[in-house]
Amino acid sequence: MNTETESILTKAKQLLKQYFGYEQFRTGQEELISHILNHEDVLGIMPTGAR
After folding, report:
1. What is the full per-residue pLDDT of the chain (51 aa) written as tens digits?
2. 23 secondary structure, DSSP code
3. How many helices (DSSP H) and strands (DSSP E) are in the chain?
4. CA 21/CA 18 separation, integer angstroms
5. Rounded CA gap, 12 and 31, in Å?
6. pLDDT of residue 50
7. Residue 1: what pLDDT?
8. Of 29, 6, 28, 34, residue with least CA distance to 16
9. Which residues lie below 8 Å from residue 51, measured CB to CB, with a gap of 6+?
10. Rounded to whole angstroms, what are the CA distances from 10 to 24, 30, 39, 44?
11. 11-45: b (≥16 Cβ within 10 Å) or e
12. Region for residue 47 given its phi and psi (left: phi exceeds 0; alpha: psi -120 to 50; beta: otherwise)
């Protein structure tokens, strides 16, 4: 992960905390975001959290 990606992920975590109250992304989310920021192909199938 390059420094620009790390910087953007740090900002994304701050916004996650500010707007949603979460300290960290759910399992797999940060990895997906990192790949997207690095212009890599990615497919993410994530649960919605609905019960």
Report:
1. 788 889 999 999 999 999 999 999 988 999 999 999 999 999 999 888 766
2. S
3. 2, 0
4. 6
5. 13
6. 67
7. 74
8. 29
9. none
10. 10, 10, 18, 21
11. ebbeebeeeeeeeeeeeeebeebbbebeeeeeeee
12. beta
Asked if residues 34 and 5 have their Cβ atoms less than 8 Å apart, the reply is yes
Cα distance between residue 44 and residue 31, in whole Å = 10
Token pair of 49, please?
């959290």
How many residues would you count in the chain? 51
Q: Which residue has the tokens 């740090």?
A: 10
Residue holding tokens 């497919």? 43
pLDDT computed for residue 2 by the predictor = 82
8-state DSSP, 45: -
